[in-house]
Amino acid sequence: MAKTILVVDDSSSVRQVVGIALKGAGYEVIEACDGKDALTKLTGQKVHLIISDVNMPNMDGISFVKEVKQLSAYRFTPIIMLTTESQEAKKQEGQAAGAKAWVVKPFQPAQMLSAVSKLILP
User: Considering the entire predicted model, what is its pTM?
Assistant: First the structure.
């Protein structure tokens, strides 16, 4: 049974690169273009992991993480922030919101897959 990962990024090229890497590793991928769009995709199905950008229109990644943590079905879903932001303050804000890992763009797919495999629950 493939694990499902929700990828949230306003850049379609980033979603594509992440999607190709994840699908190549055997994961199912759901894509969303921002936090609001992502929340509409969380309809109760099992999502094993969320990968989210920080800077997005409509709803940024940190707000999105806070919203996800309010949803009982997804409260324990691990979240990786994939972003160009590398300042400590942003990382701490992300961790405080509930993000489990922080991957800085540009990223190596192998580095991201390693973070995914450590966080994804069996």
Answer: 0.95
